[in-house]
Amino acid sequence: GPGAQVLGGHGASPPCGARRMLASQPLTRMAAARPLFKKLLVANRGEIACRVMRTAHRMGIETVAVYSEPDSRAPHVALAGQSVCVGSAASADSYLRIDRILDAIASTGAEAVHPGYGFLSENAAFSEAVEAAGVAFVGPAAFAINAMGDKIESKRLAAEAGVTTIPGFEGVIADADEAARVASEVGFPVMIKASAGGGGKGMRIAWDEAEARQAFGLSQREAAASFGDDRIFIERYVEKPRHIEIQLIADTHGNVVYLPERECSVQRRNQKVVEEAPAPHFSEATWRRMGEEAVQLAKAVGYRSAGTVEFLVDARDQHYFLEMNTRLQVEHPVTECVAGIDLVEEMIRVAAGEKLSIAQADVRRIGWAIESRVYAEDPLRGFLPSIGTLSAYRPPDEAACNKAADLAMRAEGEGGEGGLVRVDDGCAEGGEISVHYDPMIAKLITHGRDREHARQLMIAALDRYVIHGSALRHNLNFLRTIMGNDTFIAGKITTGFIPDQFPDGYRGHQLSASERIDLIAAAAALEHAAAGQANSGSGTAAAAAPYSVRIEGVGEGEGDDHSLAVMDEDCDGLPVGPGSELRVASTDDAGEGWSRTLRLGQSGLGPSGILEAEMLGDASDATPATLVVQVQERLPLGWRLCAFGTSFTVLARPPHYAALGVHMKPPPPSPFAGSLLSPMPGTLHSVAVEVGERVALGQELCVVEAMKMQNVLVAERDGVVSELYATPGDTLAADQPIVGFEK
Fold first, then answer.
1. Between the CA of residue 712 and those of 217, 230, 606, 706, what are the distances in Å?
2. What's the predicted TM-score (pTM) here?
3. How does DSSP assign 540-558, residue by residue?
4. Catalytic site includes residue 310
């Protein structure tokens, strides 16, 4: 229970946090002979807690973790030297309990507190309470947190400091009617925003008065649930701008430095998905103008520590102040990569009263970095959050990623050795992704000598990142699709990137004709390798055999059966394995024949195995390509495979099995077919319809709250409500029926 102290954690340090800091990133300064602080308490959980602790340990500082009851065996607890339980699962009863965290500080003798991001990181009362206890707060002073944390006040102060701001209404909106009236006066479209907090919560776009009324209620409830502050304001919505932010670091001696800009335009629901530094097609002159304004604002509020000033930039490169985040940002690693600075170390040193280690003239760009946020969510169902157990969790191997990226770069006439693959995570295999906390699993960061090198490293890393759970969904498929998107490759991105590129929602990776053949060949090779393992006891390899292979999955529909033959090119009589060379050839009577030769780099036939094959293709192919296929499940007559970030069911059967398959009856329909099902676990917040009511396509049916987000579920067709299966306040499981309709 709260106050229970565990010394020494729960065993060996887990594989969490920043798995490898930059090879090109020098340590800001050598650790002092005597640590700046003897002990640092991290008032957070997950990947950011692990990330802060690793820097503290390198600086010779002992660490203390706080945890909720379900987090008792979490990686951040095991990584710390001491840990203290601060309450139950609910954040309001644990990570947001200032009194219990102060008790933990006192009981462990911590001399400094790092708040991470989220939770209490932008809570002025927490900062004041920590410093009143005689403990250093690794962050800004309470005045700056108050001034910048309140978006209404920060916008006023920014204008006074000479920072360009967005037109809007400078005041708190009282109710939905006032929201509609003010929105009309400001001019549609408008952004309805919570004054407190961030992370995309409490933000809605409204295009007319009806939407303004609805958005006000949703934003207000989300803000109250997430930040304990339901104040709402309205400003003009800048359509399809770029979201560019400036990272600051300031000390208590009057020094403020701005670092290379970050591009954060790839967003969904105002939540960042992919970030990079520097920003593509962005002039140095614009960066410096924005940086200088950000410094003016920081000095106006007496800012210290790390902070970020966010801007919207329109097509004419005109920038507008959006907000200032008075904490370490989620996306800070890309700045660390390109600036060569450990921001957490700088924050700790500033809290100890030291001067910054660099001046503005020292700031430089080192290559290019990209960060992908890996979330437990289902992109195929509107990015709804997911929960479950990490039955398999294996971050990508950096050496394999560098090899693949180098091959890709050489195909373009360049080499690409020496890149970085960094994983900031706070989870481990067997761990739970809980409904109580943010659904982020990890941050995947790559750093190359230029943008294309960093992109190729990211593709290789996403292909090799193994995350699997029976009910758990994640967004690796979506991230992989983004990396191969032509508009993203060209760097022509705005905050409208996702709705523009996926207007009908994300449907998974769409296989090209060549990719389809590669995946079919890989499945046949896996089937042949499995047969070889089954025959390994006899001392002979499986003979070449015919297969009928068919893809069923996202983007493929029912697919076609392909008649194939697989031959071991090595002919050494040994079972197929790493180093084997297999030739897969089409034996279809109709259509053009094709063949692929696969040189296997790795092979794993069980769950979480990886087949990494160099696809040599036909003799006419000029450049080989590397195909990475994750084995998710061995099926009775095939495989569940993940390729190009997307899962596919691939049937691999003897030809006569395929011939008989056409006579199989389809499964019976579900009794709840056509009903509205809960797309995620959560709580039914409200129901907007009654039995017997006629509803129209797009009409609101109910609101489901999950992970502090209000999710409005609407009718997918016209119909008449026949039954309500749940009532407000009910806890819902994924796919649980909520509303039934007449047949």
1. 12, 19, 40, 11
2. 0.84
3. SPPPP-EEEEEEEETTTBT
4. no
